[in-house]
Specification:
Number of helices: 3
GO biological process, one term: reciprocal meiotic recombination
Strand content: 5-15%
Helix content: 55-70%
Organism: Cynoglossus semilaevis
Order of helices and strands: EEEHHH
Coiled coil: 88-135
Number of strands: 3
Largest sheet: 3 strands, antiparallel
Radius of gyration: 54 Å
GO molecular function, one term: SUMO transferase activity
Oligomer: single chain
Structural class: mainly alpha
Keywords: Coiled coil, Meiosis
Number of domains: 2
Distance between the termini: 151 Å
Bound molecules: zinc ion
């Protein structure tokens, strides 16, 4: 670590160093009651492997920290991406299924409207046949005279006198 040295005497060698709460590094020889660099009343933390991770992190290489953080971040991104892909696959299946059901219902609806139309036509036929049947059941005298009969009757009546008066 090129940057590491005592902030007071600038030595790099020594068995024990400490970091102050005011942010200075002191070798064993430079440790006094207050900070030997800025004179602030401070507390000392011995630099060692027993430091907490949040303290140790200040002595790690920023580049390596960035790489490991980036790896962690990319793991998080891949994890979330995989969840997203599952949702997309599920939604695609849902879309296909809903489209299939919609087509099925549309076809059924079309068939239903065709059957309704056919049913209406048949109902009309039945009504006409009922009317005709009721008419046929009446005695001859009560029957409505159809224009066809009237025509034939009057035709016969008309032809008779002509035949008589003919020479
Ligand atoms: Zn020193
Ligand atoms: Zn200081």
């Amino acid at each position: 670590m090129d940057w590491f040295h005592c902030s007071k005497c600038f030595t790099k060698r020594g068995s024990s160093f400490a970091v102050t709460s005011c942010g200075h590094i002191c070798c064993e020889a430079c440790i006094i009651s207050e900070c030997s660099v800025c004179g602030a009343s401070c507390c000392y933390l011995t630099i060692s492997d027993e430091m907490k991770p949040q303290e140790k992190v200040f002595f790690k290489e920023p580049l390596k920290l960035m790489q490991s953080r980036l790896e962690h971040i990319s793991q998080i991104a891949v994890f979330q991406q995989k969840q997203m892909e599952r949702i997309i696959i599920h939604l695609r299946h849902m879309t296909v299924e809903l489209e299939r059901r919609l087509k099925e219902l549309t076809d059924k609806g079309y068939q239903l409207s065709e059957l309704r139309r056919e049913n209406d036509v048949l109902k009309k036929h039945i009504l006409e046949l009922k009317k005709e049947n009721a008419e046929l059941k009446k005695p001859l005298s009560q029957r409505r005279v159809s224009p066809g009969h009237l025509h034939i009757d009057s035709g016969q009546r008309m032809t008779l006198p002509v035949a008589i008066t003919s020479p």
